[in-house]
Write a structure and sequence with these properties.
- With about 210 residues, the protein is α/β, with parallel strands linked by helices.
- The chain has one domain: P-loop containing nucleotide triphosphate hydrolases (Rossmann fold).
- Helices cover about 45% and strands about 15% of the residues.
- The chain starts with 10 loop residues before the first strand and ends in an 11-residue tail after the last helix.
- Bound molecules: thymidine-5'-phosphate.
- The site of thymidine-5'-phosphate has 11 residues, from α4.
- This is Thymidylate kinase.
- Pathway: Pyrimidine metabolism; dTTP biosynthesis.
- Belongs to the thymidylate kinase family.
Length: about 210
């Protein structure tokens, strides 16, 4: 095993309300890090390419109905089924830029009224991100961006609740960026944060979430 000689990859997560610009910024960050010759991959949750992911996708597009608790656990299981692959990649030096993670998991379910501690419980033990970039946008502004699509959660009132729940989850790994700034300014800020994190994590072991 030569992984001890390779500095580990960094787990970078982008979070925020629907239509805050996360997906665009994830793509830009991956290209930037690739351009610097760093091993990096773009990931996203939900990962709709697994059996569990397909169940989630069918729920999100209103083709199936599930109890709030059941869908919550599926989102969580969708992260657990990827956990060991994630760990292998990180240990082998690949940085992962992930579009949504456990913070979405907890915020979107708690926004429905589920107890936040109950929502956090199945996430405990997943790999903790080294950096969480929260793209901060007013729900009204997000709604006005090209309008919401047809997926289940893309409704203003619900997104207001989600925003409130996100606020409760802030921890030391969080950096908040104003999503109303020009795209390239957001991009530059995220690049700076990512490089900083890659530098400072080289000797820091991976840690686990919420234990
Ligand atoms: P996406 O648009 O980024 O693919 O995410 C789909 C929706 O799923 C989005 O509204 C956020 C929501 N979501 C959860 O409710 N729980 C989760 O754990 C994740 C990752 C996303």
């Amino acid at each position: 095993n030569n992984s001890e000689h390779v500095s580990r990859g960094v787990l970078i997560v982008l979070e925020g309300l629907d239509r805050c610009g996360k997906t665009t910024q994830c793509g830009k960050l991956v290209s930037f890090l690739e351009g610097r010759g760093l091993p990096v991959e773009a990931w996203r949750f939900p990962d709709r390419n697994t059996d569990i992911g397909r169940m989630i996708s069918s729920y999100l597009t209103n083709r199936s109905q599930l109890d709030d608790q059941a869908i919550h656990l599926l989102f969580s299981a969708n992260r657990w089924e990827k956990r060991s692959l994630m760990e292998n990649k990180l240990r082998n030096g690949t940085t992962l830029v992930v579009d949504r993670y456990s913070y979405s998991g907890v915020s979107f379910s708690a926004a429905k009224g589920l107890d936040i501690e109950w929502c956090k419980a199945p996430e405990k033990g997943l790999i903790a991100p080294d950096l969480v970039v929260y793209l901060d946008i007013m729900p009204e502004e997000a709604a006005s961006r090209g309008g919401y699509g047809s997926e289940r959660y893309e409704q203003l009132e619900f997104q207001r609740n989600v925003a409130h729940c996100y606020q409760i989850l802030h921890d030391a790994a969080w950096k908040v960026i104003d999503a109303r700034l020009p795209l390239d300014s957001i991009e530059n800020q995220i690049q700076g944060l990512a490089l900083e994190s890659i530098k400072s994590c080289q000797k820091k072991p991976l840690s686990t979430l919420w234990l």
